[in-house]
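Weekly modeling sync, notes
Attendees: S.R. (lead), two postdocs, one rotation student

Agenda item 3: backlog of single-chain predictions. S.R. asked that every request posted to the team notebook include the full sequence so nobody has to chase files. The rotation student volunteered to paste the first one in as an example of the format we agreed on. Action items at the bottom.

Example entry:
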Amino acid sequence: MLEKFVMTDITALKSELATMIEAANDLQSLDAARVAALGKKGRITDLMKTLGGMDPETRKTTGQALNALKDEIAGLIARQESALKKQEMAGRLAGESVDITLSPRPEKRGRIHPISQTVEELTAIFADMGFTVAEGPDIEDDFHNFTALNFPPGHPAREMQDTFFLNSGELLRTHTSSVQIRHMESHKPPHKFICFGRTYRSDYDMTHTPMFHQIEGLMIDKDVNMGHLKGCLLDFVRAFFGIDDLPLRFRPSFFPFVEPGAEVDIGCSREGGGLKIGAGGDWLEIGGCGIVHPNVLKNCGIDPNEYQGFAFGMGIERMAMLKYGIPDLRTFFEPDVRWLDHYGFDPLSRPNNATGQ
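Predicted structure, as returned to the notebook:
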């Protein structure tokens, strides 16, 4: 009876989802349909979660049916997406024209992308604090990306739905923390450096993209504590946002590679439905931080009884969005010269003193 009931649910859900996908007349509504069907909290995912409570035979039959449904719905979404993209492109080609030829006029000398500008600003601010820059590869192995950073076996970040794995057994790094591991392996303490670059995770919406940029900082020495960490980040956010009295707070949080760990919030105001950075009645999260876990130091050949330190990290796109009022993360990676003309920067502006377009 349970199997018959569940199979009836699957048949009804298939019809419902197919109707919703076919009714999606633009890419935004199709993406909403995809999330509703296949997202982490989607309808099919919810049904998958019920498999654990079934007897083995029912679980097998129902699991096969759900996997078939998942593949069929994914195929419908892919076909609808292809059709909508062709339709959208045809409309844009019919109604738009943009001259992208290089202009000889001085006022049209090009614009610096907000990501490049923000990276330069961050580098300049942390350089004033004595931080150097370290670099590392985008393609990583499990040890440098997970194990050395104290991620236990079975951690959700190791799963295929969150991480891009390659056929070679390697993966696209999910954070720039792997650069910290490589640097600590090849250099003796003390350490004081930042690292930034592309990172990759399987996610896509207004605030997440499969590829994004991170900046992380690390300081390791014999007498480093949370006070040094908070002072460093307080100086940073006040310099970056240009607000001398910008409040900052730590909220306890868990990250495998730090102990204790904290989320970093800055003050803001949301009066009138807007968002204004500064002293106000509310808080806004910008990143995470903490004291480096002793296991991470051990994995890099550093004695945690002699050395300790702090680490912090944040998304570069998020910092740019907050500072320069860019509403949608996905537009950072769309090849639209009009967007760059609006949000881009004068090539001659000072990176650590940029105030806008």
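Discussion: group reviewed the output briefly. Confidence is low (pLDDT under 50) at residues 1-5, 353-357.
Action items: rotation student to repeat for the remaining queue; S.R. to check formatting next week.
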